[in-house]
Request: fold
Amino acid sequence: MYDKYLIVGEAFKNVTENGKVIGFQLGMRLPYYRGVVLSLIGKTDLSVDGEVFSPEQMSVTLNGKEYELTGLENEPVAKWEFGEIGILTVKKPGGLNPGKHAVELAQHMKISYVPFGFHGHDRKELTLIE
Amino acid sequence: MNDQSSIKRCVSFFSFQEEYFLRKLTLEDCIATAARLDIPGIEIIGDQMIPDYPDISDEFLRKWHAWLEKYERVPVCLDTFLDFNKYNNRRMSEDEVLATILHDIQNARKLGFSLIRINHDVSPWALEKSAPTAEKYGIKLGLEIHAPHHLDHEFEQRHIEMMSRTQSPSLGFVVDMSIFSDRFPRVVSDRWLRDGMDPAIVSYFVESYNAHNCLDYVCDQVVQMGARPEDIGMVYYGVRHNLYSNPERMLEYMPLIFHVHATLNEMLPDYTEFSVPYDQIIPVFQQGGYNGYLSSEYEGGKHIDDTEEVDGVEQVRRHQVMLKHLLSIEQPVAIAMPVRVH
Reply:
């Protein structure tokens, strides 16, 4: 559900640290109708122009606090509120080139009252401005 | 004859979820909308619209109570969930389930609710253990009966056995009217077609569902017809959200029915709902002396959001016009219902 709202393009840009471009970021929402504790967030599959990124390369920032995707399963208290836009930061030295990019995001939610959980899939063309 | 006016109307803000998700409506807007549509009662999912739930801030509580006063709405039901898998690699223990429910009871008190909707996967043990605290604070706990379950399902019957034994005034059910879906929601099957399901499978499923055929068999046939894995997922979702069971079965258990989710998937311009025959079911509630709320719960948005703008407010408006009308007319007995089955 909410598939077409998962990718939020307004935040799409390269990320610089100590004068170096270390990756890029984009906004995302979750495909579910409640706010959830972070341990319920399942697999995040992201690709840009066909390049697939691993969970080890990604973190999400919620309300100013950054969480590694690989550590979400150990967060049974902190919440991602319903409809809240998280900032997904992806490590990629040098970042992305300015211009158009095909972004694809699939997100699974581990919701215990349904056998297969919830799932959302979005695909958008976003423009990265230098 | 029962006083049919004793059945009251409510709206679950689940209905406005898309508008809230996209920040088109705030929680205050939802409450104001209930007032504008003349819906006395309101129902809220804690995890959906209360920041940091189950830890509610004093600031939120101040605003909440000010809004209730300003818009003169009655807080009817707090909907809660149990996330059994939230602790990595293990299932929540029954004691943790109990602790969660007891925390929810305190939250209901703070918010002014006297009823909690318990999600449909809590054991009789946990509910029974919660009852003394719920009774102490005058809070009712209503286990939701949602498709594919129904009153005669083994799980509900185990709860009914426990409720009969304990006789706690705090334990009962929330009935979700998806269990009275006479026709399969068109908005769902139309979406299946748009998502690429073989039209032959869609029409087989819809015709079989509408004939009230055994859904286990129908699902097996769908697999035999060559459904793709994603089709099987969609059909599985469909039968977990819709079921036709006999509404008259409620008559035997009416004192246990605390609250009703009045499901709507598609309100038509003529103020009827596509799937649920409200004109046949409301008389059953009247006949049984039900005196709780019918709470509009719009489920259709997620099925149409690929082609049109979701308008939960308009769907609820039409639904409430229908409820108001049906609750105002004298219908002494249920009409055109199948033979009662025991």
